[in-house]
Amino acid sequence: MGYKCAAATGPYFANSVTQTGSDPEDQSKCIWIDGDDTNGITTQGFSLHIVDFGRTDGAVTNGGGQTTNPVAEQWNNNTDLLCKAPGRMNFYNAFGPDDFPIIYQPPLEYNPDGTDQDPNAVLHTGCDDDPELIVSPCGGSDYRKSKRNAQATRQARGLNSSTPMASTLVHSNSSAHSAEESCSHPGYIGPSLVSYHEGTFCDMATRIVWPLCSDTVPSGCFDPNANKLVLDQKGLNSTHIDLLNPSGNGNFTHIVHW
Description:
There is one protein chain. By secondary structure, the chain is an alpha+beta fold. The protein has two domains: about 45-150, no CATH class; about 165-255, no CATH class. Helix content is about 15%, strand content about 20%. The chain has seven helices and 15 strands. The chain has helices at about 50-55, 70-75, 80-85, 120-125, 145-150, 180-185, 240-245, and strands at about 15, 30, 45-50, 60, 65-70, 90, 105, 125, 170, 190-195, 200-205, 210, 220-225, 230, 255. It has a five-stranded mixed β-sheet. The longest helix is centred in the N-terminal third of the chain and has 8 residues, at about 70-75.
């Protein structure tokens, strides 16, 4: 769910080998939280309204035996009901001991099939007041309160080249792990990746995608056996040459095979 909402401003995600379905290729993404804003991870905490994620009572099985979940369909059709629903799922760049997670007060109302009755309430009625200190939490105010807006937003930074993540290389055969997406998605923070399914290599220090070396691509490519780039200076533009990752040239210190 966090991956579904990942963006350049967070939450940030990485690949994992956790199987979440019957298909071995169903390997869930994971999200990062970080207390001190290292490696560009600004998300310090998150909250979930667990009840909303279990509303499957309205699931319908059609004549072909296929089961559909109206709640999932509603969220897929309008991702704001998941990604911009602060009382349902929210990611915080600053969250201290005296802060309260955003909640819906009064609680949301649902249709018989579990879908949201009032999408506007989902988007605009959350609040983060202390429910023990006031009679009516929120006082009807919009969740985008001055207290939240006044909090300092921690700025994302690039991968720290001295950390283990920057010197780690993952080899994967799974279609769930995309080198193309890893390099291009602004919300991905993780190790460099060799995707045998795609035949590509994502160099996370530069976010450049290289083809894997083969008989037809002998240079200007990444050699997954030697774990380094095979360069053809004539075939590279000046931008690529200037951005070449030293760790990508055979200096990975931690090689992982998924």
